[in-house]
Amino acid sequence: MALAAIVAPNAVEEMRVGRKLLEELALKILYITGELSLRDLAAQMRLSLGVVEELFQRLRKEQLCEVTGMVGGIHRIVVTSQGRARALELLSLSQYAGPAPVSLPDYVSRIRTQTVRDLDVHPADIQRAFRNLVVRERTLNEIGAAVVSGKTLLLYGPTGTGKTTIAETLSELYANDHVWIPYAVEVDGQIITVYDPVVHESVEDPVPDHSDDRWILCKRPRVLVGGELTIEMLDLQFNPVTKFYSGPVQMKASNGLLIIDDFGRQRIRPAELLNRWVVSLDRRIDFLTLAGGRKIEIPFDLFVVLATNLDPATMVDEAFLRRLQTKIKVDYITREQFHGITRGVCDQLGLVYQPSIVDSLINVITQDLKQQLRACYPRDIAQQICWAARYEQRTPQLNWDSVAQACRSYFLPPQP
């Protein structure tokens, strides 16, 4: 989906960010980088040349910077000795020296404009997204309805049945959807960084020259957290060294997908997590706390997917389960599904699919090893075959000897 460009402000008052903060940011960048042209400074701050000209005039008037020359009619400037002292003082208060932030009202407005909750999904879209997976038709329909609802989705069932893979595949529904992500947001003179290159995937679509470069065009986010999740990760992260904030996981996932894998095995109890988001899940707003205690309100605009192999009834009480509107069990697979998954894995790994060998593997798993069929087994066994072949410097083959060797390496022997 094409998004209209955000028009860049041409004057400081259009930015709704404090002039003093912008001047201080320009001074820190100039001190760290050294001599710059105003055009280069504008590029680093992601601002228009007109806005940087305004900031320069104030800094020059206060004798914090001076002109060293002109290039193509554009000033080149450096900090003065007075400017260096002031920059060092500012860096001791906050080391942020990146793109200029957007205002909190502008951020809130943009998140609401590009909401993930109005996604128009139909069976054909679900079939396209899950075309490379073998999933029951009934389950696909339940997933589609959950996406349309925009409510939290709980995927539960035995380990190894494909819950995480299903959750991650949901991002395919947004593959052609783009959103604007700000580099940073300003609140009461404090900086909160939002854009994270580890989480956000920028797109190469050209944007108009007048676009506001404080926002970067990205695919809708997909954030995956597992056992490492703590209660602290759900609030603003203040770095005591750099002295600025980074947004919590749900803020980085805004307008996208947040997957909490292995739900119930985090260092935060399930009830504690849901207590933290009880208002957010119902009213679609979130409250974050600054170091001084002030709370700020932002939209809670994300599709939350919880995946667990624990019994949901043992993790949270009935009231919380009610708030998890859609609960889908991802169970063991049938022989036919096992064949279908194995066929796809063989295509991906360059193995020749042998139905009779797969039948023998299924018999070993179900009869000899007394195991249920899990969606993870075909890929895990095929990878064992490929690793052994690579070690022995031969072409991997799906035959009985390779399958038997893979089973010995992968499965524990049955208990007597």
Description:
- The protein has 17 helices and 17 strands.
- It is α/β, with parallel strands linked by helices.
Low-confidence stretches: none
The overall pLDDT, averaged over residues, is: 92
Number of strands: 17
CATH arch. level architecture of the largest domain:
3-Layer(aba) Sandwich
Strand order of the largest sheet: 4-7-8-12-11
- Percentage of residues in DSSP E strands: 15-25%
Tell me the span between the first and last alpha carbons. Answer: 58 Å
Q: What is the top-level CATH class of the largest domain?
A: Alpha Beta
| Apparent shape | elongated
**Count of alpha and pi helical runs:** 17
- Kindly report the name of the CATH homologous superfamily of the largest domain: P-loop containing nucleotide triphosphate hydrolases
Q: Note the main sheet.
A: 5 strands, mixed
Structural class comes to alpha/beta
Radius of gyration (CA) equals: 27 Å
